[in-house]
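#onboarding

Welcome to the new folks! Below is a worked example of what a typical request in this channel looks like: someone posts a single protein sequence, and someone else replies with the predicted structure as tokens. Don't worry about understanding the tokens yet, we'll cover that in week two.

Example request:
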Amino acid sequence: MQTLEKELGAHARFVRCDVTSGDDVQTAVAMAENEFGSIQGSVNCAGIGVVQKLLDRENNPADLDEFTRGVTINLVGSFNVARLVAASIAKRVAADASPESAQNADNGIIINTASIAAFDGQVGQASYASSKAGVVGMMLPLARELTRHGIRVMTIAPGVFATPMMQSLPEKARNELESAVPYPKRLGIPDEFAKLVTHIIDNAYLNGEVIRLDGAIRMV
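Example response:
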């Protein structure tokens, strides 16, 4: 990440942040305020995949701590980032904007990352699927609440993407996932995710919605 920061130059800063820590996220928000004058929004991609069945082969129950870890990072972490970013934007809007200029102003955006597992969860994905479904479920209440500040809330639900998490799978498993995508028959490219983020930011009429980015795959 430090290498990427150097490549981007004055337009980027690297801050190590645990999304489940209020102090860490507040430090990151404060850095953005201090370095760039204000914060305009967030794109939260932090997440982990917890894979375990409810019962193992000997019918022993799943590890509750592992289930909780997935929900804490994926769902609670997303809420934690959203609440602190929204507070920063709302305070800026209250200090700078008159009621007239605030009317229909696009003051900021919060983009969270869910997964198609929120809708098509598979065996062993109870923690992952439920946490991502929670990200989808909290979107509309947050979007409705933040309308008075001119802050939009959107969610992207990616399918199978060529990320470090996916690269950790055996080659056979990756090939099977690629072949399950109707079109294009390949893993998603991170740049395609970034392009959707850019469009969401630019299109002020997108609000309170989840967009699947998955090549039409439906997991069974």
